[in-house]
Amino acid sequence: MTPLDAKRPLQLNHQGQLQHFLSLDGLPRELLTEILDTADSFLEVGARAVKKVPLLRGKTVCNVFFENSTRTRTTFELAAQRLSADVITLNVSTSSTSKGETLFDTLRNLEAMAADMFVVRHGDSGAAHFIAEHVSPQVAIINGGDGRHAHPTQGMLDMLTIRRHKGNFENLSVAIVGDILHSRVARSNMIALKALGCPDIRVVAPKTLLPVGVEQYGVKVYTDLTEGLKDVDVVIMLRLQRERMSGGLLPSEGEFYRLFGLTTARLAGAKPDAIVMHPGPINRGVEIESAVADGPHSVILNQVTYGIAVRMAVLSMAMSGQTAQRQFEQEIAQ
Amino acid sequence: MKFSILGARVIDPVSGLDQVTDIHLAAGKILALGAAPADFSPTETIDAAGLIAAPGLVDLNVSLREPGYSRKGNIASETRAAAAGGVTSLCCPPRTKPVLDTSAVAELILDRAREAGHSKVFPIGALSKGLEGEQLAELIALRDAGCVAFTNGMVNFRSNRTLCRALEYAATFDLTVIFNSQDHDLAEGGLAHDGPTAAFLGLPGIPETAETVALARDLLLVEQSGVRAHFTQLTSARGVALIAQAQARGLPVTADVALYQLILTDEALTGFSSLYHVQPPLRTRADRDALRDAVKSGVVQAISSHHQPHERDAKLAPFGATEPGISSVELLLPLAMTLVEDGLLDLPTLLSRLSSGPAEALRLPAGRLIAGSPADVVLFDPAASTVAGEKWLSKGENCPFLGHCLPSAVKYTFVDGRVSYNG
After folding, report:
1. How many Cα atoms occupy the beta-carbon half-sphere of A89 within 13 Å?
2. Which residues constitute the domain of residue B36?
3. Could you tell me if A134 lies within 8 Å of chain B, comparing CB atoms?
């Protein structure tokens, strides 16, 4: 028996355009490429003296962050402002009431203020899906990170970074290193790289930090960093949270750095023109050596710049897809 | 009321009876099968041609939510829903507020159930006070108040030594202990089966070993203490294999599975629908197939609904913030009939797992369709169908099968010779 609410493209409208941006899963390569192309065009806007375009003029974008964030929140704010939207940012503490109630009620209230778009970060996997499906289907929902599940704008800004530095994905070897298990960035990156045709995706981590069945993403698993980095074009380092030291996942930061930390010496095994990426914030001396983070291979700060352009692309595309869907539904109703 | 049910296909799985005949009910008992006694004059005659008459279904786990959780359900609403699913006898677990660890709570439940007058209720008492796993509940007082078995649910005992003593104490008085084997540590923080689906969705996993590690320990303690044991809500292939091994070496343990575990797998979680959030979790296709085989072979004697009604808000949140459980007791028969429709079980075997199997596991006075047994009968039309949710009696609408067209339709449920449900 098939469940009635089996998988359906919640985030696409009747024409296959984005109306929400929840996850990269199920998005066709053409759509991902369109996001990258659009972001490329916005990068030029960012370089101009007047950085604003009027695509979201008169629209209200609410950033609702149930988890702390600096970079993601700020770049979303900037992206919305550069699109001429009105922007509200809320940092919602989850400590006082039950999470579900807070989430549901908070968003219903914001919806009542005639918000057109929510950018949501939440600690529960699936939170963005829940909102798009049950709370505010009339509002474009952009996932700013949900639990361990997805961080699709980070995934796309990483893809933009790779494309701008490497040209394409067809002949690349990419290694993702560190805490894959708890990382929504890793999940979004694996899906995006696969969809864009990257032939050699590697994940490098001890077994305690690898999800069960990670091979389903079309990746090769390495437990040795030197082997995992051999001749790669791109190294994506992941942030290691301090709390991973408890509960037996890892003995210590020191031992992790010894085995999986990216040092100049280890990076020497990659291609000479390899780039080093990191979603930030970086832990110097835990997953990455300062000399690498600040060195010639590092594109970590470029990622931040590209992040604004990618978020502008996603916000504008989802808004236009949502508007088209509303019009379509009104026409059908008439 | 005296009833004559005429011309039904009568199936009594224990005796192997499967023939078209008549049933006569009087004074709460099955008076006779076949010809009625000469002096019998029924108050009502039911033409049951084309219908199947079977022992009323016995459901070993139906959360009634009363006392304490009336926003989710109450004894009247959930026993009525059960009768609509063909259930004439049900057991309710001790997770109430207050916990069912005193005879007062047991008496309250039994009084309200009698007052409601739908399915019969057999409470399951808490094995430890407050289900806290530290101090024994007053098991004999609970037994005398009507508790038919004892469990600590999914809450682990604080120490193996205390658990061991609890089992020895229960064994002293030939009480049945129900194990919901899941290792708390291994399951901690988990939301879904620790497999590719949960990994893809970023949901923290509950490994299969959460079940098997606890199950292996529990089986060894059962063997040592000699307690009468029933294992409930098995989910994994290796779990049922452990039960089969124990049975093969002569340990008289019984087991049940949740009906939804025989139908759904963890793949249903794709899309994050909280309707599929259950504990213990839905597992893989291979696990589901092994559970089906175990039901077929008889390693698992009972299929239960593991009915857990919830209010709307309990499911209206991101997956991890929702409460686990499915409301499905009122679909027990039609949902179970999908197993026959799909060719996985023959009808008498299915009916046995839904009536005599569970009744024998907990020694309940139910599960037979022979002269002299309680007049608990379900009469259903195998050719009709049930649109799930077309009418809905449970207070909990948290059911992923709503809207599905299911095979067969319950026409009458008789409890102690009364019409408890007429569809």
Report:
1. 18
2. 3-52+374-385+405-422
3. yes
